[in-house]
Write a structure and sequence with these properties.
This protein has a two-stranded antiparallel ribbon with strand order 1-2. The mean pLDDT is 84. The longest helix has 17 residues, at 3-19. Helix 2 (25-32) packs across helix 3 (37-49). 56% of the residues lie in helices and 9% in strands. By secondary structure, it is mainly α.
Length: 68
């Protein structure tokens, strides 16, 4: 797993703690150093495919860490 892929679940978790909901793709990108939303979406898809995160809705700002 790449460094960015390791950072994304941490970013999501800390954002939820701070704001009470998940971050947008742009907000995740800003925190992990990716300016392309498609790159962030790709990384999120990879993590979802591995079962490390899951979406509870259509968008990524409704996601769960660990697929729980």
């Amino acid at each position: 797993m790449s460094g960015r892929q390791e950072a994304i679940p941490y970013v999501i978790r800390s954002w939820i703690i701070e704001h009470g909901e998940g971050p947008t793709i742009r907000q995740i990108g800003e925190r992990v150093g990716l300016s392309s939303t498609s790159s962030v979406a790709y990384q999120l898809g990879q993590l979802e495919g591995r079962g490390l995160i899951s979406r509870t809705g259509r968008g990524w700002n409704y996601c769960r860490i660990g697929g729980c």
